[in-house]
Amino acid sequence: MSAFLHQAILATDEIIKAMQKREAALYELHEVGAGGDRSIGADLLSEQIYAKYLLSLANIHSEESGFMQGVGEDCVILDPLDGSDNFLSHIPYYGSSLALCDKSHKPKEAVIFNFCTQEGVARINAEVFSFSIPAYLTKGKQAYKPLKCSTHSKCGIFEKAYCNPHIAALLYEKALKFRSLGASALSMAKAYEVNFMLFAGKIRDFDSKAGLFLCEDLHQLYTDNFTLISKDKHIFDMIYNILNSKA
Has 102 been labeled as part of a binding site? Predict the structure, then answer.
């Protein structure tokens, strides 16, 4: 059993229970974090709990506080609350992203949690699987379900669509339906189930390190301008050509 994943699940369970209380301190604004965004109380609480559970295993590089000294040479790249604006707006699509990396910054294990559904998607070596947190806490590894590509998806996810209407229009012309959900790491974890995940702009390591590792077996484009992931080569090529036409 992965000590990293086990501790991350225990931490996430504690975070979810704390956030469900909806205490006023979770919504308070704080200073600008290491990732460049202004932190809220929920960001900092989530980071504090992950640190409590994970610093005994590795260092942490977090979107909120930057580098946090732990044990050994491994480092967890952490976004403690992906989708902060959704949390503030009571939109049920937010969670966290964690990638355990070696000293050369190469991911070894990763997990992305959806706090609202209490589910996770993880990769350990070549094994990619999903699980329910409550099921894991009662059944352990028996809760893991191999993650396979869905054959029933009808649309993709386009994060930052609101500031890229020209790309949205081109996707519409190609009959490529999409939703814009507001939590890029969570959306990367959905790439096995939707037609594509497109992020317009430069995506930070805090948001992408775990997701790109989870989706290594899918088609990927990762540049300073776009991140594109798709399980479908034809759809991937269609969107790739659209992006190149706008370069």
Answer: no
